[in-house]
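can u do me a favor
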């Protein structure tokens, strides 16, 4: 190997250099995946916020009627907030089902493209990962639904029934 380094027309690459390059690529892929996940979370939370806010605006008359009939602001807040959390829980369950269903297909596609893919499962959905994902989805729903729920809870019955928010 020492003699190969001295020959000017040969470029010698050590295994340590190859390993370092692969680790750098894996690190770059992790950063890219994290950035994509962050953008997806932001878009999802904005979507839940928008749909929940529109739901409150469209149902302002019904919210006014509930308040006139004795619903407290806490009751109205809870209804809207739980609705937002349930929307995200349903999305999380759908995502988990798609992951389970398409995981095998993804593994086969990766193995077809990369001949030296690691043995074993590439996509593994374990119970702790599933619980963390569903908890995160519900948390996003709670955060995204907080302001619309607060807005619904503070609607004045007369103004909301007249449609003059």
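np, heres the sequence
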């Amino acid at each position: 190997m020492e003699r190969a380094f001295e020959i000017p027309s040969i470029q010698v690459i050590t295994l340590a250099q190859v390993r370092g390059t692969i680790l750098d690529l894996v690190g770059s892929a992790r950063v890219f995946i994290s950035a994509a996940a962050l953008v997806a979370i932001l878009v999802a939370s904005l979507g839940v916020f928008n749909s929940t806010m529109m739901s409150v605006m469209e149902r302002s008359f019904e919210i006014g009627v509930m308040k006139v009939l004795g619903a407290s602001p806490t009751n109205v807040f809870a209804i809207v907030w739980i609705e937002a959390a349930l929307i995200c829980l349903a999305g999380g369950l759908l995502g988990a089902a798609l992951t389970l269903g398409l995981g095998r297909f993804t593994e086969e596609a990766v193995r077809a493209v990369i001949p030296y893919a690691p043995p074993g499962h590439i996509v593994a959905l374990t119970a702790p990962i599933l619980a963390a994902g569903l908890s995160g989805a519900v948390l996003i729903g709670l955060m995204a639904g907080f302001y619309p729920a607060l807005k619904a809870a503070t609607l004045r019955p007369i103004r909301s029934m007249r449609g003059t928010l």
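The chain has six helices and no strands. hope that helps!!
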